[in-house]
Design goal:
The complex is a heterodimer of chains A (about 300) and B (about 425).
Chain A lengths: L2 H32 L7 H23 L7 H23 L8 H23 L15 E5 L2 E4 H23 L1 H11 L1 H6 L4 H23 L11 H14 L4 H21 L2 H18 L14
Antiparallel strand pairs in A: 1-2
Chain B lengths: L2 H34 L13 E7 L6 H20 L8 E7 L4 H13 L6 E3 L3 H13 L4 E3 L12 E3 L8 H11 L3 E7 L2 H17 L2 E8 L7 H10 L3 E5 L4 H11 L8 E4 L4 H7 L1 H4 L3 E4 L8 H14 L7 H20 L4 H8 L3 E4 L2 E5 L6 E2 L3 E5 L5 E6 L17 E4 L4 E4 L4
Parallel strand pairs in B: 1-2, 1-3, 3-4, 4-5, 6-7, 6-8, 8-9, 9-10
Antiparallel strand pairs in B: 10-14, 11-12, 12-13, 14-15, 16-17
Helix pairs in contact in B: 2-12, 3-4, 5-6, 8-9, 12-13
The chains are: A mainly alpha (about 300), B alpha/beta (about 425).
Chain lengths: ~300, ~425
Amino acid sequence: MTPTTFLVGQLFNGLSVSSILLLMALGLAITFGLMGVINMAHGELMMLGSYTAYVLQNLFVRQFGEQNFGGYFLVALPMSFVVAGLMGLLLERALIRHLYGRPLETLLATWGVSLILQQAMRQVFGANNVDVRSPNWLTGRWQPSAGLEFPHLRLFIIVFTALAIAGMYALLFRTNIGLKIRAVTQNRDMSACLGVPTAKVDAYTFSLGSGLAGVAGCILSLMGSVGPTTGQNYIVDAFMVVVLGGVGKLAGAIAGSFGIGECNTLFESFSTATMGKVIVFTLVILFLQWKPSGLFPSKSRSLD
Amino acid sequence: MSHRHDRPANPGRRDFFRKTVKLGAGAAAANFLPELGYNLMPRALGAEPVKVGILHSLSGTMAISETSLRDVELMAIEEINAKGGVLGRKVEAVVEDGASDWPTFAEKSRKLLQRDRVCSVFGCWTSASRKAVLPVFERLNGLLWYPVQYEGNECSHNVFYTGAAPNQQIGPAVTWLLKNRGKKFYLLGSDYVFPRTANLIIKAQLKAEGGQLVGEEYTPLGHMEYSTVVNKIRAARPDVVFSTINGDSNVAFYKQLRNAGITAHDMAVMAVSVAEDELRGIGGGVAEGHYAAWNYFETVNTPQNKLFVDKFKSRFGKNRVTDDPIEAAYFQVHLWAQAVQKAGATTVDAIRKGALGQEFQAPEGLVRIDPKNQHTWKTVRIGQIRSDGQFNVVYATDSPVRPQPWNTLLYPDRDCNWDLGGTVTRKKA
C-alpha cells in the first residue's frame, strides 16, 4: 500500500465518518437546532430504530427464510422512522410541550426518559447486545484500484445522507408544513396570531426529528453494536456537530459534521484514535471560544 | 408534598425504624451463636443461614456482562443448598448492584461487609471496580471472589482470583500464534489499564520469542468508528491482530473489518475479551475464523460441562450461552463452599485457610486454588469462532497451568507468595 492510496483511503473514510455524523445529528438539528429542546433521549430514539431493524430482520428470516432475509432492510428504514417518530410524538405530547422555554428541566426530564427507554429495552430484549446483520447487497466492496477498497455499506450511507439532506431542504423550503415549521421556530407568537396551530406544528416537528434519529439508528446498526446503551455512544457526537455548526441552521450541521469528520480521520491517521478525538475536541472548544454561536450563527433577532 | 399528608405519617415511620433496628441487632447477635454452639446444637440453630454477598453491575454499561454472573452464582448457591448447604446451614445471598460505577462498588462492598456481615463476596468484573473495592476488603478484612481474567500485578490477601492470570491466557495465545499464524503482530486495545498492561507483557514476549511488532493502537472505550484503524492495519500488513478491545467496540471492529473485506484467512484476530456472550451481539458470521483465548468454552467436552450447560439453558433459556467468566463465577461458589466445609467455621480467616489448595472438578476441568498466591490453576484453551457464535477448540494445555500474577518477563524478580507475606522480591540467582 503506497502512502497515496493510504491518504485517498483516509479521505474516503473522512467522508464516510462525516456522513455518519451528519446522519446522527440531522434529527437533533431539528429538535435541538430549530426547536431548542435539549433532548438527552436522542440517542435512545436512535436505539429504537436499531431495535426496529433487529425485530424486522428476525421476522423476515422467519417468514422468507435465511436466503431472502436481506430485504428486511428496505422495510426497516421506513419502519424505524415510524417507530421513533411515534415515540417522539408521544414524548412531545406527554412531556416536552409542558417544558418549552425551560431548558434545564427539559434536560433532566429527557435524561430520565433515556434511562426509562434503556431499561425498557433491557426488559424486553435482555441486557445483551443483539446481532443485526447487513443484507447481502451491502456487504460487497468497490475496488477502483489496487489497495483501495470502498465498502458498499459506506458508499450507501454517503448517498443516503445526501438524499436525506436534500429531502429535508425540500420539506423545509418547498412545502406548506416546512413553511409553518420555519415560521413557528422563528417567531412563535406572531405565527400563533396569524393562525398557525403552533402546538400541532411543534408536535410534528419534534416527531420528524425523532423519526430521523430512528432512521440513523437503523443504518448505524449495520456498523456498530445494538444494545440498550447503544444510544449513549452517539449522543455526544451528535450534540457536538449541532453546537459547532450553529444552532438553528441545517447548513451548520452539514458543515459541522464535515469539519469534525474529516479532521478526526486526518488527525487519527497521524496519531491515535484517542489523540485524534482529543485534538478535535480541543479545536472545537477553541473555535467556540472565538465564535460562540458556531459556524453558521442564526441571524434572526426574534429567537428567544 | 403538603404538610397535611406528611405529619400523621411521621410517627408511624419512626416506629418502623425503631423496629428494624431492633430486629437487625438481634440478627447480628444470633449470627455468632451457631458458630459458638455448633457442636452442641447444629440442627437446632441450623436455621440461621450463612450469608454471602453478590456484587455485580445489574444496571449501566457493564450490566450486559455482569448480570449473567449474578444469575449463575445464585444457581450455584441453590445447588449447594439443595445438598444441605454448608456446615448444615443454608447459604443466603445478599445481592447488590454496583451500577457500573466504581464508587458505588466501594460503597456497596462496605455495606455488605459491615451491615450484612457477609463472610465472602462474589463480585466485580472490570479491573477498575476491583481496584475500587480492594481497599475496603483489605481494611475490613473481607473476602472477595473475583471470576474474571485480569492483567495481573496484584497479590491481595483478601481476594481469591478464579479467572485467568496473564500467563494463563495471553502468554500461551502469543506463543501459539507465533507458531501457527506468523511473526508480525499488530496490538489493538481499548484505552485503559488492562489492554495497556497486557500489551506490555505481549511486547516483552514478542522480543523474547522472536516476534515482530508492526503497530500498536488504543481506542477509547465505546469507540465506534474503526475505518481509520482498519486502514492502518491494512497498511501495516500484520499476520495477527492481537485484540484487547473491550465492550461494545468489539461489535463495531469486527463488523467494519469484515466490511472492509479483511477475513480471518488474510489476517487473524486473537481476542482475549470476546466470548460466547459477546459473540451473540457481534454475530458469529462476522467474526468467523478469528480466535479467542480462554480457559473455558461452551463447547468444552467434559461430563461436568454437559451437565452445567444443560442446567444453565433449561434454567435461563435456550438462547442464553455460557462462557468463561460465567463458568468461573459458577465454580468459585463451589470452591468457597468446600473451603467453608473444610474450615468448619465462617470467619474470613478460617475460610481463607480452608480455601488454600482446594480442588474442584469444574466444567473446564480440574481447577485448584494455589496455596501461595490465591490465584487458580486452570487449563488454557484457544478457540476458533464458528458461524453459529460458538468456538472450535483448536488448542488446549494437557493439564492446569500454574497462575503467575507477576509476569516473569516484566518482573523477573517479583513473586506473590503469602507464605512469605505477599509480594516478595526473589533473590537473584
